[in-house]
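User: Some background: our group keeps a shared notebook of sequences we're curious about, and every so often someone picks one and asks for a predicted structure to add to the entry. Today it's my turn. The entry only has the sequence so far, pasted here. Could you supply the structure so I can complete it?
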Amino acid sequence: MASQEVTTTEPNKLEIKAALAEQKPALNLEQTLKKIKDLNRLSNQREKLIVTIDNLEGFEILQEDEAEETNLNHFQRCELKITDDNGNTFTTKNPFIIDQVSKNIKGLCTEKLTEVEAQISLNL
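Assistant: Of course. Here's the predicted structure to add to the notebook entry:
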């Protein structure tokens, strides 16, 4: 009978490095508390973004409903007002500008929400 050789290969340095990278070292108490604070901050930020997105969606739907009832254009009866720290204000009733600002803010919040949720996943 011919002997069958069983060969076992030892992992090379790259494989060992990859395996070590997958194993997360245990955190000490300070590191754990810091991670909890970071996750709490990210969780709060996530909730605020969700509320803002929901408010904008509700605002747009309400404006569309009102526009249908009154036969006015979307955002026709709205006013956008921005005030800076010095009390200077910018005000417009232009429905096109208000619509674009609303969509832009919603888009920015949605992008930021995606980033925050990715950070939460990475911190777990």
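Suggested note for the entry: The two ends are 55 Å apart (CA to CA). The mean pLDDT is 83.
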